[in-house]
Write a structure and sequence with these properties.
120 residues; alpha+beta; Trna Endonuclease, Chain: A, domain 1; 5-stranded mixed beta sheet; 38% strand
């Protein structure tokens, strides 16, 4: 079991990674709709919009980008998809837009890596 200090450090590292990912996507022309959006079925790290597309983003921070990408497993994907469905159902005005599931991996001393269409 991880101690409190380790969990606290991991929590703040995750918060920093999400901010970095959000800023990175904003530089690419995405507009934030929500951050750390909690639903009854799970949480979505970032919800961004670019043009006519709403993008649900899973952010992962690891020592290497490959490790971060590999940590997005079927359980994560299912949770994000269910939370996205809940998000859209509660906002009917978004129903006419396109939807996409992306990932952003964050690694020490490297630029974040954006993976469009990471899963569906």
């Amino acid at each position: 079991m991880r101690n409190t200090a380790t969990r606290r450090r991991s929590y703040w590292r995750g918060i920093a990674a999400e901010w970095l990912a959000c800023l990175y996507l904003m530089c690419k022309g995405y507009w934030p709709l929500a951050r750390r959006f909690k639903t009854p079925v799970g949480e979505i790290d970032l919800i961004m919009k670019r043009g006519g597309t709403v993008v649900f983003v899973e952010v992962k921070a690891r020592k290497a980008h490959a490790d971060a990408a590999a940590s997005i497993h079927a359980g994560n994907q299912a949770r994000v998809v269910q939370a996205a469905q809940w998000f859209v159902q509660t906002r009917p005005r978004l129903a006419a837009l396109a939807f996409r599931f992306d990932a952003v991996t964050v690694s020490c001393y490297m630029m974040p890596r954006h993976i469009p269409h990471a899963f569906s």
